[in-house]
Amino acid sequence: MKQCKITVFVKDLSIRLRKEVRAGSLHVTTTVVICLSMVSFVVILTVFINNNVKKYLVSEDHSYFPQLAAFTPLSSWSPYPYFPCNSSLSPPSLQQLQFPITSLRDWLAPKELRHSMNDKELLWRASMVPHIDEYPYNHTPKVAFMFLTRGRLPLAPLWEMFFKGHEGLYSIYLHKSLEITDEAPESSAFYKRWIPSKPAEWGRATMIDAERRLLANALLDFSNERFVLLSETCIPVFNFSTIYNYLMNSNQSFLGSFDDPRHMGRGRYNKRMWPTVTLSDWRKGSQWFEVLRKLAIEMVSDVKYYPVFRDHCRPPCYMDEHYFPTLVTKIFPELNSNRSITWVDWSRGGSHPTRFVRKDVSEAFLNQIRNGFNCTYNGSITTVCFLFARKFHPSTLDPLLRIAPGLLGFHS
Ligand SMILES: *[C@@H]1O[C@H](CO)[C@@H](O)[C@H](O)[C@H]1NC(C)=O
Ligand SMILES: *[C@@H]1O[C@H](CO)[C@@H](O)[C@H](O)[C@H]1NC(C)=O
Ligand SMILES: *[C@@H]1O[C@H](CO)[C@@H](O)[C@H](O)[C@H]1NC(C)=O
Ligand SMILES: *[C@@H]1O[C@H](CO)[C@@H](O)[C@H](O)[C@H]1NC(C)=O
Ligand SMILES: *[C@@H]1O[C@H](CO)[C@@H](O)[C@H](O)[C@H]1NC(C)=O
Ligand SMILES: *[C@@H]1O[C@H](CO)[C@@H](O)[C@H](O)[C@H]1NC(C)=O
């Protein structure tokens, strides 16, 4: 590593310089300063020549990629800016660093979910929108299933059954807690679907950051048109094709949003949010949303309301129950049905919804969720109001796997 030696040499010189100054020898100092300037000049010249030679070599090898030069760091000291000298990792090859753009496909979706963008870079990248409506390629819309998980995904076998046979119509994204390091088997729908994650605290801004991180990663794939946020306790209550068609044929999003006059609603409004957010703007809703692409882009692009919520929505105000419901009502009320498609049971009271265990699961129970309600869909009344349900304990997996093939029409 030549760059390292140069750094060490410069460090060495500066230490010597400091010693000289302490010794009070002005003459020696001047000499050293001159020497140092000359060394710097030589070093810069070397790097410059080095880069030019590399550019020359590179363009000889791949002269059919004129974009290459733009991706080569021209004036940087090191061609491997993200790999410090002491790193035990070996630097990537030049080939990997230059990302040659060979076809439109390379722009449409990242090949790998792993990336080195920080949140700010990621959100900016995800906020980009094409200005030509018509696709120049065969565009098959997909549903992005975004799992915001606290630990593992105990109901994964049910989801595997749900996804099976529908490849190409969905994408999966997992936001994991950091202690989970194991990978799903290669045959799994969840294989290599983790996104770069950070710790998220319930009710805090870090939870919204995690949701926006999921949305932004999913937005990088231009085929994703609907975005569902799910937790590890969620289950699907219809088969894939029913859910896919329900979402794709709707011109609205399903993000719960209502005005709750009680203290656990309007009572959480903080006057300091005024005038950006007023009390009449204030909304509440479930964290588990489903949105269409246009709304997802707004949700990752918001720089106006997010700081106000981050600074002034602190417990007992829970950001995940108020930020998106208020934001969406404020910017695109006509694109939202204001109802969630994830069923949950609050009927037993308290501050947490009912958690279902093995003995609760039956066909009758699932049918009640599937058809036991009335709501508006695309302008008309329907009994299919919920496509997903929570909160299901890991012990429900066995009965669910037993019921699913018949009732939900899953492939097994
Ligand atoms: C490399 O050096 C940086 C800064 O000097 C230090 O923070 C880091 O821990 C070092 N890494 C290794 C792998 O030694
Ligand atoms: C819902 O409305 C959209 C646009 O108005 C239409 O394209 C779609 O077919 C409708 N879906 C259903 C299920 O009626
Ligand atoms: C959702 O709520 C907003 C704001 O209250 C309203 O403008 C919009 O019409 C509602 N949407 C539906 C489908 O009722
Ligand atoms: C839904 O609407 C039907 C027909 O209007 C009615 O018979 C039924 O009781 C309603 N169900 C609920 C849960 O409100
Ligand atoms: C959605 O579709 C319904 C039924 O076709 C229509 O009445 C409604 O205006 C549409 N809404 C939007 C926002 O396009
Ligand atoms: C999915 O369920 C619907 C009805 O709920 C059924 O008509 C359809 O055949 C099922 N699809 C598959 C692939 O099993």
Automatic annotation (TrEMBL):
UniProt keyword annotation of Manganese present: no
Protein's UniProt keywords contain Membrane: yes
Localization (cell): Membrane
GO cellular component assignments: membrane
Region forming the signal peptide: none
Membrane topology, from the record: Single-pass type II membrane protein
A Pfam entry, by short name: Branch
Sequence intervals crossing the membrane: 26-49
Keywords linked to the UniProt accession: Glycoprotein, Glycosyltransferase, Membrane, Transferase, Transmembrane, Transmembrane helix
Matching InterPro entries: BC10-like (IPR044174), Glyco_trans_14 (IPR003406)
Gene Ontology molecular-function annotations: glycosyltransferase activity
Domain of life: Eukaryota
Name of this chain's protein: Core-2/I-branching beta-1,6-N-acetylglucosaminyltransferase family protein
Provenance organism: Dovyalis caffra
Lineage: Eukaryota, Viridiplantae, Streptophyta, Embryophyta, Tracheophyta
